[in-house]
Design a protein that fits this description.
about 375 residues, about 30% strand, Rieske Iron-sulfur Protein
Amino acid sequence: MTDLGPAGATAKNMKFPLNAWYAAAWDHEVGSTQILSRTIAGKPLALYRTDSGRPVALADACWHRLAPLSMGKRIGAEEIQCPYHGLQYNAAGRCTRMPAQKTINPSAMVASYPIEERHRYLWVWPGDPTLADPSTIPDMFQMDSPEWAGDGLTIDVRANYQLVVDNLMDLTHEEFVHSSSIGQDELSESEFITTHDENTVTVTRWMHNIDAPPFWLKNMRDKFPGFTGKVDRWQIIEFQAPGTIRIDVGVAKAGTGAPEGDRSQGVNGFVMNTISPVDERTAIYFWAFMRNYRLDSQLITTQLRDGVHGVFGEDEEMLTAQQEAIEANPDHEFYNLNIDAGGMWARRIVARMIEQERSAISNIDALTATAGPRR
């Protein structure tokens, strides 16, 4: 068995770190005239844009009576109004107007979360805002590069977000869950290499001189009409903590140099995935399929999006059933196979992030207790 380190890496840990960037919405979901309600990492958010287009993420609960601000409306250049009693808040979360009084209570404010727009998503940092570094937003450059084309959708997953990560880090399940589209026997028969560092895990698998499964045969024929013959197939899975996974996938005519870097006789795609926990039982799964061929074909973009959506629907059914089984068997611990190495290293990284946050909070509590009460 592969050495996966401390037991915390293999435990059924359903928790999530807060000091991290999570995708909260597609860029097109949030405008300047409406307010979007979304919960990320246990934090209910009210998402909107100012008139200048800058995204804003406020806590979705009015200071006064906790009415959801997402049920309110946009006011002026950058403010929103509570739907219950009309309190208004600016983009920093500070109350600027109260009904029937001129004096505004100085404590009247709601949390404003760091938010950045990048790679067609709005990314929110639900933890300590002083630690929010935009340079650490997961790299998903294919999403808005002119050299890649594609589209994606969102799945509301009725399962813990780490189960989705597990699913994507081990693609041998394709042989069994997706046998009619992308699965084939060679997936579980082929060797793979797992590497990792402090924040990423990469699983690399090559399958040489095999028949292309239906999904990839269609794509080869989209680029090379009438293609027949064997292919070399690759899957290179890259996890970026805590919930983003890019999967470099494709096939090329066998023996034409794809393993050595020449993919010109093949088709290449990136399955882009970023999964945000809602709570410990549910998640929001943003995905897209990007390709670097036939960039001008909207037909291929739509066909690929719909085809991948069908594949992911099979995953969704399995993940829901798995979550239900976990809840029905609370004393059962996960067991691991060699194929779980990538997912377990990803879990180890997440477990370390959570432990670091706990330690930081404990240190602050200890310093506060040592300092004693103010006088």
